Amino acid sequence: LLFTVSNLCGKCRPRDTDLLQPSLNFLYWSLHQTTPCSQQRAVAVLLSNVSLLELLQKVLECTWLQSPPPSEAAYLSPEDALLCSGWLLVASLLLCQHRYNTEVHQTISLDLTEVLKAVIFRKKKPVLLLVSILQFLRAVLQQNFSSSLLVIIGQKTAQDARQPQPSSLQDAALHPLAMQQVFPLVVSLQNLLVHKDLLLSPAVVAFLETLVEYLYVKNQDVALHVASQPWHRFLLFTLLNGGQKSFLQPEVLRLMTLFLRYQSSNIISQKEISQILQEAAEASLAELPEATSRALHLFLCQV
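Structure tokens predicted for Meiosis inhibitor protein 1:
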């Protein structure tokens, strides 16, 4: 069935949303709702289908080629739903291909600048689409832009710089990211967190964790500079506005852990650490949601 559906997808066009959207969802769940052995076979079937991979590239490119609908961001059109399925499926293929070192018969080429612009300049993109793109970007960062499935285009190499400046030297260290992309991206992530969306916030925090970790490996100074931006403290005040035991929100705990890990003492102080410990001591740990318990565990380990 997986083989048949993937072949069917390969014969479609990106505008065949009624057929493609449930088909891509089936392929996505075929990768996730299965045993590791079956998952390895499933990813091999999908990555051997050249027509499917070519179609997926065309679907993803529609993210910045099509005009945003005049409706509100909460509305998910059939075209947007297809984009969500495409981004999530490709993110899963990247992770599975890396895990099993599966042979790739056709690469997917994407312009990193366009992908980042889709997050930085959102233009009323639906929340689920932003989450899907962040999942993809996180998978790419986790693999250090080295996936054999993905080809990043549209970025200059360090050798392209005629007169190396400090910024170009930093760009060379962060390649294929550029300094002029990192800070607008971080600001955009902060703005997304301010909305306190239950679906979006965990995805944003997870991506921010991966981004800072990537930057730290590439250039510690840049990573520490990003992690210690004063705007982060205002962000925390915004997230903590209202609600009893507000420190025990999973996203807040994960952000606090991130700032502790990268020694951002101007963002989180001993006072905040003490408040979290006090709230944890007064809480009924058995009644905490799983996400909160996991985030609290990571925070305490970091402390």
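Confidence is low (pLDDT under 50) at residues 156-164.
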